[in-house]
Amino acid sequence: MSVDVSDVAAVAEDVESFRTRAREWIRGNLGPFRPETAMGLRSVPAEEELAAVAYDRQLQRKVYDAGFAGIAIPREYGGQGLTAAHQRAFNEELAGYECATRFQIPTMCPCAAVLLDFGTEEQKIRHIPAMLRGEEIWMQFLSEPSGGSDVAGALTSAVRDGDEWVLNGSKVWTTGAWWSDWALCLARTNWDVPKHRGLSVFILPIKQSGVDVHQIEMLNGAKDFCQEFLTDVRVPDTDRVGAVDDGWTVVTRWMFHERTLFNSPYVTYPQGQVHTVADASPADIARDAGVLDDPRARDLIGEARTLDVVGDALMQRIAGGMRAGRISDQSAAIGRLYRGIAGTRTATIKFDIAGPDAAAWSDDDGGISQAGNGFLMRQTACIGGGTTEMARNVISERVLGFPREQLPDRNVPFREVPRGGSR
Ligand SMILES: Cc1cc2nc3c(=O)[nH]c(=O)nc-3n(C[C@H](O)[C@H](O)[C@H](O)COP(=O)(O)OP(=O)(O)OC[C@H]3O[C@@H](n4cnc5c(N)ncnc54)[C@H](O)[C@@H]3O)c2cc1C
């Protein structure tokens, strides 16, 4: 059952007075946004990343104590019980200020959002306030080595044993799993029905025996990506989310929340902040590279700014349309597609502005080093959170109503689907 975050009837404070109160608190209590501490795929020593995680926990607690955490989350789950419009006002006032990024994506969205939609009362009361207090960081155990885009093809199995389930398998590409607390995990509970009908969703603590987390080194040296091996992990049935074998219903909504991300009413994130690994603005990079007056650099700065402005307007339009029921929830894929393409283009723009130094930077090169790093990692914007190709599929099939992609395994019991020896 989804929570109606636009229910203005329950609102005690109007958006503008809330905005004024939020602005005063933010200016008096938060420091400037520091991209170097934000969650991302950064190549930093493990101690530095752990210090950033600890700082995020404190920061989230500070926001919670001030009464600004979970603005559109119902009060019974530790939130403020306000609306998406209040959350947006807070995010606008937060522009330029620090934010506990690790408690937003994927903790609040999609994980908390999925719990709100499908969790039991006990699950919501146990976990959502803990997330809001900065005590639980959540990750998505969705992708698998055998194929991330084919989410319904999950091979991780969950076998019922009395009041428990026993999970075995492997998940991969989980950002930050090595320092996170809980996971939302998709597993196969029935091999004798077609793939979409034999899945279930579970929640589980990451730091437990049977969950083996390996860090993966990426192109830029970052080791935040992880692969997890699950060996006889026991999960109580009370930690199942949604009905047995009906995980696809949960996952469809999970994907919707994942595509909404920074535009979700549950996410506190500075409005207009560039969402790539390199957060120095194109103008900052041009200044550092000494080309601020160069006409070509100025054109590129203009193009990047246009992408930002158009992106913000598009996201607001999509979110507003979905909230009002004017467009389908599947339209979130349009935002996801735009974010991917614009993020990749912005990373390329920054690299072009920075010039040759971006190809061989040193750590004290400021924005120039970020431009080089961002260029190396630019394709992540089109892959993470589902690829842009998959977003195009969703837009074509579910928003525009074009014919469905051919799926040869759609009506075949999953046990009989050929899998190239991966099982
Ligand atoms: C920055 C980042 C963060 C991530 N964080 C997480 C995380 O926290 N948790 C998690 O579970 N996963 C995470 N992922 C994994 C991500 O969701 C997967 O990489 C993604 O779903 C693609 O899966 P894949 O890599 O297996 O590619 P594949 O599914 O093998 O796809 C390969 C290529 O084929 C295309 N393709 C595949 N099927 C189709 C189709 N039917 N139609 C058109 N094109 C198709 C894909 O778009 C892609 O270009 C993250 C990835 C990145 C880059």
Ligands, deduplicated:
flavin-adenine dinucleotide
Calculate Rg over CA atoms: 21 Å
Largest sheet: 4 strands, mixed
**Cα-to-Cα separation, first versus last residue:** 35 Å
Please estimate the helix content: 25-40%
Helices, by number, come to 11
DSSP summary, beta strand count = 8
Shape: globular
* Helix-strand string: HHHHHEEEEEEEEHHHHHH
The helix/strand class is alpha+beta
Proportion of strand residues:
5-15%
Task: List unreliable stretches of 5+ residues.
Answer: 1-9
Strand order of the largest sheet: 1-4-5-8
Average pLDDT taken over every residue = 91
What would your notes on this structure say?
The chain is an alpha+beta fold and 423 residues long. 39% of the residues lie in helices and 13% in strands. It has helices at 15-29, 46-65, 84-93, 107-118, 121-132, 247-260, 282-289, 295-323, 332-354, 367-376, 388-399, and strands spanning 138-141, 157-161, 164-175, 182-188, 199-205, 211-216, 225-236, 240-241. The strands form two sheets. The protein has a four-stranded mixed beta sheet with strand order 1-4-5-8, covered by helices on one side. Strand 6 (211-216) and strand 7 form a beta hairpin. It is globular, with a radius of gyration of 21 Å. The two termini are 35 Å apart. It binds flavin-adenine dinucleotide.
Provide the fold topology.
Blueprint (H helix, E strand, L loop, with lengths): L14 H15 L16 H20 L18 H10 L13 H12 L2 H12 L5 E4 L15 E5 L2 E12 L6 E7 L10 E7 L5 E6 L8 E12 L3 E2 L5 H14 L21 H8 L5 H29 L8 H23 L12 H10 L11 H12 L24
Parallel strand pairs: 1-4
Antiparallel strand pairs: 2-3, 3-7, 4-5, 5-8, 6-7
Helix pairs in contact: 1-3, 4-5, 4-6, 6-9, 7-9, 8-9, 9-10, 9-11
Bound molecules: flavin-adenine dinucleotide (FAD).
Flavin-adenine dinucleotide binds next to strand 1, strand 3 and helix 11.
